[in-house]
UniProtKB/TrEMBL annotation:
Source organism of this protein record: Linum tenue
Signal peptide (UniProt feature, chain positions): 1-31
Protein name as it appears in the record: GDSL esterase/lipase
Entry's Gene Ontology cellular component terms: extracellular region
Keywords per UniProt: Hydrolase, Lipid degradation, Lipid metabolism, Secreted, Signal
Keyword Transport tagged: no
UniProt-annotated location(s): Secreted
GO biological process: lipid catabolic process
Principal place of residence: secreted
Domain of life the protein comes from: Eukaryota
Length: 370
């Protein structure tokens, strides 16, 4: 019990359970009645990928069983047993305490860019996210190819050109795009699959943690401004979660008796601070747009608090059998049966349950920018 409480503290600030429950209750009452938007564009890494890596020359793809065991279409390339956080924002979901809610209220999931969506689909939205992708072009490339954020923006430019053609003018296209929600989750792989890799001695000698975070924010700033130039006016940017609490980093780095790799969590903290500052700058530079910060650390806290509230044991080991090389589920293996009590699906990625429980923390921010 003591170690469990320590783990909870590792994810927690001095935020009380009362505040968390109140926030969840508020989002249950109001968070899923947000005004609908006509379209939704998704950028990011494996936390949001819905199949863009399937045909790439990479070991970082998951279009096989047991991935998708709880997803309606089975294995699609999503790095989870079911829906990702980006999916849950889209469609109806059964919420905790039996509450049936609705987020953006789309009928279907947003298609990946790699599936070559048709003209009707692109007006509703496209998912560009790619497993192992980062803000920096080089991040995550040790596993093979990926669609880094620069490429994702180039792919979006192709989509925008098609929308211009479909709607007949750039003005009409940008009026449409200005009503869309844009969500982006980036930065995780710039640390996990770049800066903290044992072989990345050169970049660590060139940049200390504060300098590296500043480098990432500078690149990210240019990329988000490019997104704005392509018509984005409602943008939600996700911070990096406590990656030092992932099963992979706990197993490979070690914790010296602590529940998580504290040094890694401290290492990425400057990025989140910088991202909040960047969002303030973006708001000032673009008063015709709205930008919001998605606090993924708080989103994952709620899983642990609710586990205490509901008196069930949170398991922080992977639900599936994972490869010691990639940290991904071994193909065609049988995963755990009690997936409702696991936070992590594989050595890096959350289960659908964790994504569902985190969504109420994130969605009120999205509401404010719609």
């Amino acid at each position: 019990m003591g170690s469990r409480r320590s783990f909870l503290r590792s994810w927690s600030s001095p935020l009380s359970l009362f505040v968390v429950v109140v926030a969840l209750a508020a989002s249950s009452a109001d968070g899923f009645k947000a005004p609908r938007v006509p379209c939704y564009f998704i950028f990011g890494d494996s936390l949001y990928d819905s199949g863009n890596n399937n045909n790439l020359n990479t070991s970082v793809k998951v279009n096989y069983s047991p991935y998708g065991i709880d997803f309606p279409a089975g294995p699609t390339g999503r790095f989870s047993n079911g829906r990702t956080a980006a999916d849950i924002i889209v469609t109806k979901m059964i919420h905790f305490f039996g509450y049936a809610g609705e987020t953006l209220g789309f009928k279907d999931f947003i298609p990946p860019f790699a599936s070559n969506p048709d003209d009707r689909q692109i007006l509703v939205g496209v998912n560009y996210a790619s497993g192992s992708a980062g803000i920096l072009v080089e991040s995550g490339k040790q596993g093979g190819d990926n669609v880094d954020l620069n490429k994702q923006l180039r792919n979006h430019k192709v989509t925008v050109s098609r929308i211009v053609k479909k709607l007949g003018s750039k003005k009409a296209a940008f009026e449409h795009l200005g009503q869309c929600l844009y969500i982006c989750n980036m930065g995780n792989n710039d640390y996990i699959n770049n800066y903290i890799l044992p072989q990345s001695t050169a970049i660590r000698s060139q940049y200390n943690p504060a300098q590296f975070a500043a480098l990432l924010i500078a690149r990210y700033s240019a990329q988000i401004n490019r997104m704005y130039e392509l018509g984005a006016r409602k943008v939600a940017l996700a911070g990096i979660s406590n990656i030092g609490c992932t099963p992979s980093l706990i197993a490979t780095v070690g914790t010296n008796g602590a529940p998580c790799v504290t040094s890694v969590n401290q290492l990425v903290a400057p990025f989140n601070i910088g991202l909040k500052s960047l969002i303030s700058q973006l708001k000032s530079a673009h008063p015709d747009a709205k930008f919001g910060y998605l606090d993924t650390i708080n989103a994952f806290k709620c899983f642990f608090f609710l586990s205490v509230f509901a008196a069930f044991k949170v398991k922080t080991t992977p639900c599936c059998q994972v490869s010691t090389v990639t940290g991904l589920c071994l193909p065609n293996t049988v995963p755990c049966s009690q997936r409702r009590s696991y936070l992590f699906w594989d050595a890096f990625h959350p289960t659908e349950l964790a994504n569902r429980l985190g969504a109420p923390i994130l969605f009120p921010v999205i509401q404010r920018i719609l």
